[in-house]
Specification:
Elements: E1 5-14, E2 17-23, E3 33-34, E4 37-39, H1 46-58, E5 62-73, E6 78-87, E7 100-106, H2 121-132
C-alpha cells in the first residue's frame, strides 16, 4: 500500500479577503489558481510545513491558525489539507517567489472570478463556509 502524502494549502486571509496564487508551472497547471502551500516533508507537522511553504513561495511570515475540516483527494497518493492562516504583523507583503506568477487578494464576491484548479474548488468552498461564513 502506498503511503499517502499530505499537501497543505493556506487559506490566507487579510480583512476578509482570501489570497489566491496563479500557477506558472508545470505547463498543465499554468494559468490556474490555487491556495498556496506544498508538501509536508518527513518529520514536519502540517502547520510547520505550511509556515515554511509560505515563507519559501511568498516571502511571508505567517501564523497558522486552525485546520479547515476535511481532506480533499489530489493525484494519488496526495491529499490536500487546508489551514487558515494570517500574516504576522511584521511580515512583508506576499509576492510570488516560485511556482506562481501572480497573486490576488479576493473579496468574497470575487472568489469565483478566477479559474481555480479543479482539486482546490471544494477546499475553497469549505474554507469560505467555515472561516468566513460565506456560501
Amino acid at each position: 500500500m502506498t503511503q499517502r502524502i499530505v499537501v497543505v494549502g493556506a487559506a490566507l486571509f487579510d480583512g476578509g479577503r482570501l489570497l489566491a496564487a496563479r500557477r506558472s508551472a508545470p505547463p498543465e497547471l499554468a494559468g490556474r489558481w490555487e491556495l498556496p502551500g506544498g508538501k509536508v516533508e518527513e518529520g514536519e507537522t502540517p502547520e510547520a510545513a505550511l509556515a515554511r511553504e509560505l515563507r519559501e513561495e511568498l516571502g511571508v511570515a505567517a501564523e497558522v491558525v486552525e485546520r479547515v475540516p476535511g481532506e480533499w483527494p489530489l493525484k494519488p497518493p496526495y491529499v490536500l489539507q487546508v489551514w487558515s492562516a494570517r500574516l504576522r504583523p511584521a511580515s512583508a507583503a506576499p509576492r510570488p517567489l516560485q511556482d506562481h506568477d501572480e497573486l490576488r487578494w479576493l473579496a468574497p464576491d470575487e472568489i469565483w472570478h478566477v479559474d481555480w484548479l479543479d482539486q482546490d474548488v471544494p477546499a475553497v468552498r469549505e474554507t469560505l463556509t467555515r472561516v468566513l461564513g460565506v456560501r
